[in-house]
Design a protein that fits this description.
16 strands, 15% strand, binds ligand T4K, 413 residues, Aspartate Aminotransferase, domain 2, 3-stranded antiparallel β-sheet, Aspartate Aminotransferase, domain 1, alpha/beta
Length: 413
Amino acid sequence: MSKLQLSDLAIFGGKAAFDAELHVGRPNVPDRRRLLERMSDILDRKWLTNNGPYVQEFEQRVAEMIGVKHCIAMCNGTAALEVAIKAADLRDEVIVPSFTFVGTVHALQWQQLKPVFCDVDPLSHNIDPARVEQMITPRTTGIMGVHVWGRPCDIPALTKISKKYNLRLLFDAAHAFGCSHRGRMIGNFGDAEAFSFHATKFFNTFEGGAVVTNNEDLAAKIRLMKNFGFAGNDEVIQIGINGKMSEPSAAMGLSGLENLDEFIKVNRINYQQYRNELEGLQGVRLLTFDESEKCNFQYVVFEVDESVTQVSRDEMLRVLWSENVLARRYFYPGCHRMEPYRSLFPNAGLMLPETERVVERVLCLPTGTSIGSHEIRTICDIIRVVLLNGDVVRKRLRDLQQMMDSKDRKKMH
Ligand code: T4K
């Protein structure tokens, strides 16, 4: 058991637990030699982008791994979403959770669609199908589910609703690469699913993403759309953008795929250690994963119930940051409280009670290959000492804040 005392905490005058910052989204780097070999190959070949051989190989490998017919590699997850939305011909209103990265919602609004915010299930943090059904209007054309933290949405219920009302069903699978639902890999559901391979994801292509689908027509459309609508050298047959993945990104992706199992293994070990260390602490919950499914364990999600702990999530965050543990409160404050949505839909929060609760409770803790057992033990020691002294920590933080405020006031006069 740790001997850490409150007075050891950096926020109360002690030395920070870590000299260097610990990040939530520290990239996992694949075997350097394999990556550099591929990079050198790209330079020799002088084929840098536009459906080069590495992009083609990457698409094939991802499709094989997921067991899906089509993988279209893209320059990032947001472009993947935008193109999928356009290709699926979504119009008017689309139902989407507010508890997601803002890129999900921007992808709709960017194309003048109206995002209709739907509440989430408080346990899974995923869009609540019962609520979805209540949000459907004659103008609804689709549902955008998000597999938050890599845990699949209630896919059967959403599929049933989409069929019943003849709606398109897309999934933002940015968090769910390498995860499965009832033994089938994420990427096989709805009309199409979009991945993000951003640097902060456990598997990255620097920047990158992909749309995967089993729908032949949709795949053909998406391929055209991500390349300006070119069907031949000078034949453009529809509107499109530049959403292409580059060869260096595909090289990073191919190298990362070779190390994917190791990344997941490290994430799983980290997650289990967090779970063991934090077990039994009152008022906090570490989100669990269905371990009979494939999971990537890329987010360690910690919920703080202030009514029990007496310190809020934000107070915990302050303590952790002062120790150089840069935990993140994804997806605070909820998309509906960000612009332009806050101004467009000022009352959206009334329909989102669970989202409003969840955004106040969640904290993502550092994991990935940059974090080891020593770091996790230290982070958990800090969390434990805060939780075991919740009322004292809160009082001292408030005193500190008052002192700072009065200093600021004096400076202003
Ligand atoms: N849908 C969902 C559900 C998503 O979560 C995302 C992206 C998207 C769609 C859109 O996909 P992309 O278009 O991004 O492919 C980060 C990522 O930028 C974003 O990709 C991700 N979700 C989101 C959850 O997290 P920020 O604002 O937290 O990024 P940032 O720069 O603060 O980085 C996070 C931490 O990672 C920092 O502590 C620093 C560290 N970091 C970051 C980078 C880029 C590194 O150590 N090295 C790095 O190279 O959004």
